[in-house]
Amino acid sequence: MSIDARQLTRRRIVFFSIILLLTSVATWVMADILWRGGVTRTEMFILALFIPLFALVSFGFTQALVGLWVLWRGGDPHRITTTLKEDDTTPLPVTAIALPIYNEDVSQVYEGLRIMFRSLEALGQADRFDFFILSDSNDPNKWIEEEVSWVELCKQVKGFGRIFYRHRQIPLNRKSGNISDFCRRWGARYRYMVVLDADSLMSGKALVSLVRLMEANPRAGIIQTAPQLIRCATLYGRLLQFASTLYGPVFLAGMNFWQGNEGNYWGHNAIIRLAPFIEHCALPDIPGQPQASSKFMSHDYVEAALMLRSGYEVWLAYDLPGSYEGGPPSLIDNAKRDRRWCKGNLQHAWLLFAKGIHHISRLHLMLGIFSYLSSLLWLLLLVAGSFQCYREWYVLPHGYDYDVGLSRLLDIGGGRLALGLFIFTMSLLLAPKFFSWILAARDPHRRRRFGGMLRLCSGCLIEQLFSMLVAPVQMLFHSFFVVTILLGTRVGWGTQKRAPTGGVDWGDAVRMHWIHMCAGLLWGAIAWQIHPTLFWWMSPVFGGLVLAVPFSMLLGQTDPARALARVGLLTTPQEIVVPNEVSHLDRNLTAIRERIPPPERLREHYGFMQVLLDPLVNSVHVSLLRQRHKQRGAPGEYYRAMEEKVLRDGPGALTHREKTALLLHPVSMARLHQQIWLLPDAQLSPWWTMAMRQYNILTSQPATALYR
After folding, report:
1. Which residue in 69, 111, 225, 256 is a FRET match for 697, CA 20 to 30 A apart?
2. Does the reported pTM lie above 0.85?
3. How far is the C-alpha of 327 from the C-alpha of 571, rounded, in Å?
4. Do residues 52 and 84 lie in contact, with contact meaning Cβ atoms separated by under 8 Å?
5. 369: CB partners within 8 A, 6+ apart
6. Which of 336, 366, 385 is where one domain is finished?
7. 275 part of a folded domain
């Protein structure tokens, strides 16, 4: 399927004309408010900040307005899912499902994979998909747990030859490098690849539908689904889940309206046509960067731009059900993720003027940059506005004619004109939420799945209150990220916290938010000194900053979320009617976490202990290493010295680097396993004798009958 180019052009003319009209009117009014008594540098600065910020507000409003129109009419007739034939029984090509992981919660990753495998099996399509677990984990415990879980999973679902595990020795270029490595090794064997995230979950029907959509649209290079947030347990997570479920459809429908077959890619829960992806979508180097950090951190936008440049289409299947993901459990965890995304999006500035990039791709890249840069612009606008208020109240001469231009023409006064602009701006900001509420309220079935009209309205009010308090905190977070990144601060790729439960303590909250609280107190005091009116106008900003520490603590807890859930507030349709895949995942993870954990004294080195004590774990680990490191022969003096150290003094005597080196050496691993069982206790560290007794107890636990 391909939307007619002329029709898509007409859509974009209408769409961007509305944005231009709204922004032009607001700019005219703002200029009229500022330019009275002469034009100053401060006023020019304020206007220069106002224009892009209001353009973004207009963009969001217009996208939601168009989305409301599309959904009210029953959906876009040119959406990609209209090409899907429900009764199609054509045999599918074998498709790869790539799951890159990095020090993740192994139970959640593998149980999600199990659910997807079983869902495909129920459809009779399990033999048409190969799963690849692509690990970059550098934590020895996670690494060994991944290998053990892979063998257990393959035995339980008879997945050998269908579920594969690969561990990279060096996690070069992070996730994009992980996917590139897969494409080099196995990409030629498959026509399509579905890319997942560590917390992704997709139904078998959704996976099959993606492949059928690709088969029906040979020019489609990427089809991106719209994942729904699931399993959020903290107050922050449930607010995100409620907002994305209620407000997301109207934005997604509007987005699909103007981007058509020239959409974007979000890095996961999407299917990719491998041949053009391998040929055309290799990431370019960032100019002037050292080799270790020369690749784009946010690779997905770039890959979508390169796919469009090669002549293939990128679609958003916004109405395809069965695609899910997790969300950050707290405001602090969201900020840590945003810092990495901010660095990746700012890197896209290198591509804005690159040759051959489609103009819509440039727009996608620009919107990604402004999703973080706008916070800094908003902060500067607030500061400049405070200074302008001080200037008008204390510096400018009293009695000069304020009513000029538009205010004089309309005979409403400059103050009323400013109030009108404020109301107009807030209306555009809140209108998308109102549009979403209208769509939910008019549909009795959808309304009931949000808990009914009263709970739907109450949830909207709660979400709006919390989002108003969160906004200034995120403004300072994003402003700090932008400034420090532009100054050259290094941004690492840490492990992302994906557990649905949070647990923010006072230490973390104070360490992350003390500067917000101090900024709010100082700013509020200055505003009060300038004028009480300014203070009360800006009190929502000060309030969110001053309350940042307790507010962040509250958002990261599960008890308030449970209290609201008990009375049916912030309820989402996927909680009223829980999808089978989600309910199975919840049940399996609950059963797994009821198992007796290893004793505290073993946890730090539990993976290393497993691989040396357990014959099955040792043989699996060694066999996986030997497939890639056949050249490694007998251990040299360096490895022999480490072997003697770990036997004599225990794993705690090794550094992380030494432990990793041993784990990567198959001969040392096999030799250590033999030695640890053959040597008398007198020649072993007491830690090993204790570990043997405890490990026998742990491995004697009965297996949990949960695998469905």
Report:
1. 111
2. yes
3. 16
4. no
5. 345, 346, 348, 349
6. 336
7. yes
Cα separation of 498 and 60, whole Å? 28
Is 519 part of a structural domain of the chain?
Answer: no
DSSP code for 175: H
CB-based burial label for 258 (10 Å; 0-12, 13-18, 19+): buried
Domain at 101, CATH number: 3.90.550.10
User: Would the pLDDT of 308 be above 90?
Assistant: yes
- Going from the C-alpha of 548 to that of each of 226, 236, 506, 522, the distances in angstroms are 31, 13, 12, 14
The domain boundary, picked from 320, 336, 352, lies at 336
Please state the rounded mean pLDDT for residues 30-38: 78
Give per-residue pLDDT as tens, 134-153. 999 999 999 999 999 999 99
Residue 255 in domain: yes
**388 near 50, Cβ under 8 Å?**
no
Check pLDDT > 60 for residue 321. yes
The DSSP code for 497 is: P
Mean pLDDT of 452-480: 95
Segment 239-261, tens digit of pLDDT:
999 999 999 999 999 999 999 99
Q: Decide if 140 contacts 607 (C-beta within 8 A).
A: yes
Domain that holds residue 687: 600-699
Distances (CA, A) of 656 to 605, 653, 661: 11, 10, 9
pLDDT confidence of residue 38:
67
One-character DSSP codes across 471-486:
HHHHHHHHHHHHHHHH
Residue 566 counted as domain residue: no
Name the 3-class secondary structure at 336.
Answer: helix
Q: Count structural domains, the chain.
A: 2
Percentage of the chain surpassing pLDDT 70? 90
CB 322 within 8 A of CB 202: yes
Q: What value does the mean pLDDT of the chain take?
A: 89
